[in-house]
Amino acid sequence: MTVKYIESSKLPTPWGIFEMHGFEDLEHDKEHVVLSMGDITGDEPVLARIHSECLTGDALFSLRCDCGAQLQAAMHRIAQEGRGVIFYLRQEGRGIGLLNKIKAYRLQDKGADTVEANEQLGFGADMRDYTILQPMIDHLGIKELKLMTNNPRKVKALQELGVNVTERLSHQTGRNPHNAKYLSTKKGKLGHLLDHPEDGE
Fold this sequence. Notes:
Blueprint lengths: L2 E11 L2 E10 L4 E8 L8 E7 L2 H5 L7 H15 L2 E6 L2 H4 L2 H12 L4 H7 L12 H8 L3 E5 L3 H9 L3 E6 L10 H11 L11
Parallel strand pairs: 4-5, 4-6, 6-7
Antiparallel strand pairs: 1-2, 2-3, 3-5
């Protein structure tokens, strides 16, 4: 595996002080970070979130998705528990990159859903690779996770890496009129476990 640990530092946030751990993915020329709070080693399962970078949602407050809201909710939940970890993976647009994501958004503006837009650009519905998590988890000494996710693919990917996920915690937040179709597509075509009553209509 070509992911190597670089350095750690403190990261003060509105929710508390996290430790930020930097990793370099030499194969894909990407830089990933892990945010941790409290002692994440030991046998007690660690509250965790695998979050794929979303510049538009995380930094530009886009309402087209639920990503920014999910990231903030995860940070808040970890701070409340006083112990947890967020894997922030630089896999923008489910792995297609920022500029292709803008192209996909343009197709969505014309009526395509998020899966159709990716496929019209020649990509799979979800191009993310979770095997890069293994060296990060090993470095941090994490044994078991309680995973905040609605995506069963993330649970399956961790289990395939030999990481025990003791619990999947529903992580639904940030629904609004601009992302209702996006969330319904996540549920209907990508198998996300969402239980909003209007989903699937």
